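Deliverable D2.4 — example input (structure tokens):
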């Protein structure tokens, strides 16, 4: 059965994690899970606390965009207190965890678009936003925000239809948000512990990236770059080979395939 709404108990009941998702703060409707998660983190919420909403009214995307977050989607934020050395790996961790979970629950194969969109058949199914509070080398908190288009009928959202998809549109049937959330929490904990025990997730993330070796157009701040997406560095930045032969390291931006 595909559930209509989520509840903390349905998420935590026999959840196979030690700390991720063991405390759930749930809202039927909320502006943004990022804001509540930030407040909770600043008040010292236990690591792994998640804030989840059935529906967001002011969902936040990367680069100050808005994120459409109606009831049929997943909107959650996870509170972590990582060491500063793991901070750049959180984008890799989150996109890989989403890709693994989608595959485990639906069988659908997905790819990662630098830096951290998850795509199915070239269209965005998930967006990830990382916010952190950092003072020098001290990370006060890091919040991973994950939005997944689960049972959205994209035909009802013409503004994102050309570039977005949903799991139900790909599969032709609805998907249990609860199963996907529970799987996601298990995957996030597994990858987070991999990092903390000296393992690497960089190679798998790099190998899932869709644009490497291709000509791209990249907007970073007010600058537009064009070139070949040659590789990525272990801190997650993109190495772009431009037509004059130079290699530019780009930390954040928005990439599209060039001609
Ligand atoms: C993007 O692709 O621009 C990132 C989108 C991130 C959306 C998620 S939904 C849960 C969390 N709460 C928000 O307001 N944003 C993130």
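Example output (designed residues):
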């Amino acid at each position: 059965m595909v559930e209509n709404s989520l509840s903390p108990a349905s998420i935590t009941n026999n959840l196979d994690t030690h700390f991720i998702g063991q405390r759930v703060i749930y809202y039927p409707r909320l502006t943004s899970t990022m804001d509540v998660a930030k407040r909770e983190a600043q008040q010292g919420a236990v690591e792994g606390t998640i804030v989840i909403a059935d529906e967001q009214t002011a969902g936040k995307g990367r680069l100050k965009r808005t994120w459409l977050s109606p009831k049929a989607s997943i909107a959650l934020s996870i509170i972590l207190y990582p060491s500063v050395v793991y901070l750049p790996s959180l984008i890799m961790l989150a996109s890989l965890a989403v890709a693994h979970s989608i595959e485990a629950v639906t069988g659908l194969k997905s790819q990662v678009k630098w830096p951290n969109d998850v795509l199915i058949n070239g269209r965005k199914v998930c967006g990830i936003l990382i916010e952190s509070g950092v003072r020098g080398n001290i990370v006060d908190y890091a919040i991973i925000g994950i939005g997944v288009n689960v049972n959205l009928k994209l035909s009802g959202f013409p503004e994102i239809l050309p570039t977005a998809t949903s799991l139900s549109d790909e599969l032709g049937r609805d998907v249990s948000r609860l199963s996907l959330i529970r799987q996601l929490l298990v995957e996030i904990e597994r990858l987070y512990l991999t990092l903390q025990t000296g393992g690497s997730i960089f190679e798998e993330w790099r190998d899932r990236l869709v644009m490497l070796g291709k000509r791209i157009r990249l907007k970073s701040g007010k600058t537009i770059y064009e070139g070949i997406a040659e590789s990525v560095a272990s801190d997650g930045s993109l190495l772009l080979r431009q037509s004059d032969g130079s290699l530019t390291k780009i930390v954040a931006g928005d990439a599209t395939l060039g001609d």
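Residues 32-34, 56, 59-62, 65, 67, 69, 75-77, 117, 127-129, 145-147 surround biotin (CB under 6 Å).
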